[in-house]
Design brief:
It is a single chain. By secondary structure, the protein is an alpha/beta fold. It has two domains: about 1-30 and about 270-330, Dockerin domain (Type 1 dockerin domain, Orthogonal Bundle); about 35-260, von Willebrand factor, type A domain (Rossmann fold, 3-Layer(aba) Sandwich), CATH 3.40.50.410. The protein has helices at about 1-20, 25-30, 60-75, 100-110, 120-135, 180-190, 240-250, 280-290, 310-320; strands spanning about 35-45, 80-90, 90-100, 140-150, 200-210, 220-225, 230-235, 255-260. The strands form two sheets. The chain has a six-stranded mixed β-sheet, sandwiched between helices. The two termini are about 25 Å apart. About 40% of the residues are buried. The chain binds calcium ion (CA) (3 copies). One calcium ion binds near residues 47, 49 and 223.
Amino acid sequence: MEVKTQTLSRLGSYVLLLAALALLPWAGEAMAQSFSERHVIIVIDRSGSMQMVRSNGQTRFTEAIKRARSYVNLSSPLPRSFAVWTFEESSYIKEQGFADAATTLATLNRLSVGNGVTPLALAVCDAVDELLQYNPGVTAEKVVRLVSDGEENSTPPSSPCYGPDSATPYPDLTMDSWQWKVRNMLKTGDPLRDDPGPYKLVFDVDVLYNYISFASTGSPVREVSSTGRSAVPVQPRLTSAYLAFLQGVSTASGGTFTAIGDSSPVPVFGDTNQDYCVNETDYNLVLGYYGQAVPPAPAAADVNHDRVVDYYDYTIVVNNYGSGCGASSAVSR
Ligand SMILES: [Ca+2]
Ligand SMILES: [Ca+2]
Ligand SMILES: [Ca+2]
């Protein structure tokens, strides 16, 4: 297989590079990571809309799980603990408490999609609470990693993050809207308190959405609530205000925002130039800036977004070498 051959030929240069590593300045050291661990709750949408079939024939949910698995497999300078939650209907399930990567991969493998509605604000806000309460004595980076395709439509009034839609788009969120509360929660840990300071938590977002609506997918997906609400038709497209909200809060919190259109290939980790393929171009970019801080190195070379191009970025590219390559010809872009 071509991809395997390429990966093998990379192993030779990998060994050489490991030898050279000792000679390079450890740029990461200067950044003095103030965190000793990373705590992540992967919050996965299993509402009915996640059954939507993408143009590559896979459901959004299947692709979401694949992405989550790749994320857990990334090499990291910090020891990581992951919890996994799924949300649907008017609540969420704690599929797994904080555990290591191997346990988390096994948990992700057994998840399946549901039919119900989407209590997104509830799940995100409760995940923030859980993260803040977990091992508070450890100086850990706290990450809510949301994987979802759609709009909040079923957070119960009992949730501190319940509210109407914001009347105005991000960043001018209407006070007491669910968006305002979720933003505040990620920022301060309190849904009712905004604050000019930096975010307490990092909000990583993968959002699957309909970029081009296709007519041949059969009957439209509906989300059905068993609690007496009528079925909620899934919107043919996400509104730009919703995407702007997720992207705005994610970026402001120092997180990553990845929009995954139904008719586009799924982005792969280690791809530095958005061609949906990890190959020599990505490899050379990371090597070219190896050991440098960002800036002056371009942000694209910093694969794991920790503002330094180093061993971990390199490893992510090597481990994903060949990923996604060739897939783009099977789908329209
Ligand atoms: Ca949904
Ligand atoms: Ca690439
Ligand atoms: Ca990096």
